[in-house]
Amino acid sequence: MKLTKENIEEYLLLLVDNELDAAEAAEVNAFVMQHEECRSLLELYRATKPDTGEAPYVFPEKESLLRQETPAMLFGTIKPFRMWRQAAAVALLLGTGLVLTLLVARKDGKEISSPSPSAGAITQNKKLQQEEVPKPSTPPPSTALANVYPNRRLPVAAKTAYPDQAAVAPVKRREREEIAPLAAATLPATIAEESPAPIIQAIDRESVPALTAGRKELPGWVPVKEESLDGVNDLVSQVQELRDNLAAKAKVLKRASFVIRIGDKDLIALGR
Amino acid sequence: MTTSEYNRCVHELSDSLYRFAWKSIGEAEEAKDMVQQAFTVLWEKRAEVPPEKGKSFLFTVAYRKCMDVHRARGRTTGTERLHENALTEAPRTNELKKILQQALATLDQQSRNLVLLKDYEGYSYEEIAGMTALNTTQVKVYLHRARKSLKNYLVSKEHVI
Questions:
Q1: Which residues of B59-84 are buried (b: 16+ CB within 10 A; e: fewer)?
Q2: CA A262 to chain centre
Q3: Strands (E), B2-150
Q4: Helix, strand, or coil (residue A269)
């Protein structure tokens, strides 16, 4: 920056306007100190600047410019009444859901545990028929079940319908041993005398009350409802009927026979 | 800019904006209207204006509205009416201030606004250029010309200091 008397006025204006950095300002001030006419010119330019110490201007309507500040809320700018409305809606939904849950639970409970005696018996009979008919070889209840699971609280009907496989295995084996002569020999006398006997012995009407009576002395015993006993009795009667049907079929089997004959010779003759 | 930041701008800037408008237009009532309009625009644009730009935004709006007022008046130079209002309504501290107010009133509207922004608000050439849509060189030239005019007014025969 080269200062001369020709360009000093521009730098004086820049100095008055505070547009020079510190080094440039110092250089200009040094030049001004060396030239009297420049000093007076600088004073004139400084006089054109207003005195900042003048009486302050006060805008009289400042309050009209201010805006209402919304208070900070927990959930943003949601108004209180809207929160109450939403809370009421949530409470209504929860209440409705609770009532529906209770109704559904109560309905299920009726079907399972608290039927009317007649309807419950019918329902259980149907279920048992559906389970028992396709499985005629299902072994009958025996006292072995009570010995294997003495603390189980299942209803007697359930234990009767679904006996444990470990307990049933000897019965099945014994049944197979008794029914085996049916396939080996078709003599009716053999089958009629031997095959129904084990089944009749296994299905004993008196065995169920004996089961329940023996368990009453156990620590976890829960009394069995009368309708459950009715169901068990119905099951026993159904099994007995099944036994009769089986015996009738066995009688038919003893008379069944077939012969494979070619010409006058009988190649295979069974049941004759 | 939030509502609280806007209100802070009102508290901090309304007085200086009022001074700028009053000295630029020369009428207190018009200056009040202009301040209210400037803050109304700021409120409407508050989402786009960061807090640190509030002051320059307000003075930019006020500068443009002052220029609009003078264009509507059909005047491009200082008038006797403006001169009289500036003398009667501006604060009077001493004789030099009165002469300076008279000198300011002789400037054209744009030069007067530039002087007000520079001397009262302390903006740099670059900042004034951003407010007035002029470039920095134009601001510098106009300001130097205005300063020389004020100096000549002060050293004239009637106002020798």
A1: bbbbbbbbeebbeeeeeeebeeebbe
A2: 68
A3: none
A4: strand
Nearest residue to A68 via CA among B32, B143, B2, B74: B2
Same structural domain, A139 and A235:
yes
User: A255 and A122: one domain?
Assistant: yes
Asked if the Cβ–Cβ distance from B15 to A49 is below 8 Å, we say no
**Rounded to whole angstroms, what are the CA distances from A125 to A107, A111, A181, A202, B91?**
20, 14, 33, 20, 110
Per-residue CA distances from B66 to A129, B13, B30 (Å) = 102, 17, 10
A190: CB partners within 8 A, 6+ apart? A181
Angstrom distance (rounded) from CA B75 to CA B42: 28
Whether pLDDT at B79 is above 70: no
Residue owning tokens 């089997």: A253
> Fold for domain B3-154?
Butyryl-CoA Dehydrogenase, subunit A; domain 3 (1.20.140)
Q: Which of A9, A48, A51, A61 to mutate to test the interface with B (most CBs of B within 10 A)?
A: A48
Q: Which domain holds residue A17?
A: 8-47
> Exposed, middle or buried: residue A92 (CB in 10 Å: 0-12, 13-18, 19+)?
exposed
Residue B158 three-state SS: coil
A55 and B15: CB-CB below 8 Å?
Answer: no
Is A100 inside a domain boundary?
A: no
Q: ipTM value, please give it.
A: 0.73
pLDDT one-digit tens code per residue, B15-26: 888 888 888 888
Cβ-nearest to B14 among A62, A67, A70: A62
Measured CA to CA, the distance from residue A135 to residue A131 in angstroms comes to 7
The average confidence (pLDDT) of chain B is: 81
pLDDT interval class at A157 (50, 70, 90) = very low
Query: Which residues does residue A258 pair with via DSSP β-bridges, in sequence order?
Result: A270
Identify the three-state secondary structure at position A260: strand
